[in-house]
Design brief:
It contains 14 helices and 17 strands. It has helices at 11-22, 33-42, 83-91, 105-108, 120-125, 170-184, 197-208, 211-217, 224-241, 248-255, 275-282, 293-303, 308-322, 332-340, and strands at residues 3-7, 26-30, 44-47, 52-55, 59-60, 68-69, 72-76, 94-97, 100-104, 111-113, 131-137, 140-141, 147-150, 152-154, 157-164, 189-192, 260-262. It comes from Pseudonocardia endophytica.
Length: 341
């Protein structure tokens, strides 16, 4: 029986693990701090638009506490800025078979990279043989330890998955994908297996360029011009770099299947938002904008296409995280003046 070991179980990882565990799928959540202690003591509470449920889940706080076997699949759900530390911490962990240790994670186990942005897969591939991109369309928020808001209803989200890098065993990839469909879809997590998963992740990156606006402004509805400018820069950069991106119509069809809509959760304001918003709300001191808007800037510099709007947004985001600002610290007119001029 496959077990899904969710590394970096914050909002996305805890929600996914809880939904799978509710259906009897074997999971192990790897978390830290108060969130890990709360889940270990009382399970993970999933608050959805249509239901609230608390699910018992096994939890560990370190790689050495997880006894890994050949039936395990690692699902990386950290923030991108924490990915390298997480991957290096797991790459050399021993994997066990019926007769003892048979190798390391790096050589044997699949790792699904369920991160925003497009750099997590490259980070993982430096250390792990079997790397798979996982494009996550799954709005979740973790505000209180042990409690996660899941906004999808009645289905919960869509996950596009594909091999990253060359495969030496396509049959193993197919078996993994079939297992994901079998285990995840009963939990409301729809699995799609496109030929080019990174085209989906670059399309998701375009959507995520607005995360920083939610974080800095709180309510980003008045900054649509800034969002459009950031996305226009990104499209110009991707075109110059020869990067393929899923088209608008295909993405709408892929992310809006029958039975999936995103609604408010009773008792919570509708403005609870992106992972960047959550980072400022929790005062983590870091924010992943450098791997979202900053990725556009990096690629643009490589191909000679400036991306000043995205560069300025990354600078403001770093400042907000460094100085402990809360979401909504900037006024929209002030932001527009700083970014668009």
């Amino acid at each position: 029986m496959t077990r899904y070991v969710v590394v970096g179980a914050g909002a996305v990882g805890s929600a996914l693990g809880g939904l799978l565990a509710q259906q009897g799928v074997d999971v192990l959540l790897v978390a830290r701090g108060e969130h890990a202690r709360a889940m270990a003591a009382g399970g993970v509470t999933l608050r959805c638009p249509d239901t609230t449920v608390t699910v018992p889940v096994p939890v560990v706080t370190a790689a050495e506490d997880a006894y890994l076997t050949v039936d395990d699949v690692l699902v990386l759900t950290t923030k991108t800025q924490d990915a390298e530390a997480a991957v290096t911490g797991w790459a050399d962990v021993p994997v066990h078979g019926p007769d003892g240790t048979v190798g390391r994670v790096a050589d044997l186990l699949p790792m699904l990279v369920a991160l925003n942005g497009v750099t997590g897969e490259e980070i993982a591939l430096r250390y792990v043989e079997r790397v798979y991109g996982l494009c996550v369309w799954f709005p979740t928020v973790m505000v209180e330890p042990g409690e996660v808001i899941v906004r999808g209803t009645p289905r919960r989200g869509v996950f596009h998955v594909g091999r990253f890098g060359a495969s030496t065993d396509p049959s193993a990839d197919t078996a993994l994908f079939d297992g994901l469909v079998r285990d995840w879809e009963p939990a409301g997590c729809l699995v799609r297996c496109p030929d080019a998963v990174m085209e989906w992740k670059y399309r998701k990156l375009l959507a995520n360029l607005g995360n920083v606006l939610e974080a800095l402004l709180g309510d980003a509805s008045g900054a649509k011009d800034v969002r459009r400018a950031a996305q226009a820069e990104a499209r110009a950069v991707f075109d110059a770099a020869g990067i393929a991106v899923v088209g608008d119509e295909e993405s709408r069809a892929g992310w809006q299947p029958d039975g999936l809509s995103f609604e408010s959760v009773p008792g919570e304001p509708p403005g609870l938002g992106s992972s960047s918003w959550q980072s400022l709300a929790r005062g983590t001191g870091t924010i992943e904008t450098d791997f979202l808007n900053g990725e556009v800037v990096r690629i643009g510099r490589r191909v000679g296409v400036p991306a000043p709007v995205n560069a300025r947004l990354t600078g403001l985001a770093r400042r907000a995280a460094r100085e402990g600002m809360e979401p909504g610290a900037f006024d929209v007119d002030e932001l527009r003046a700083r970014v668009l001029t």
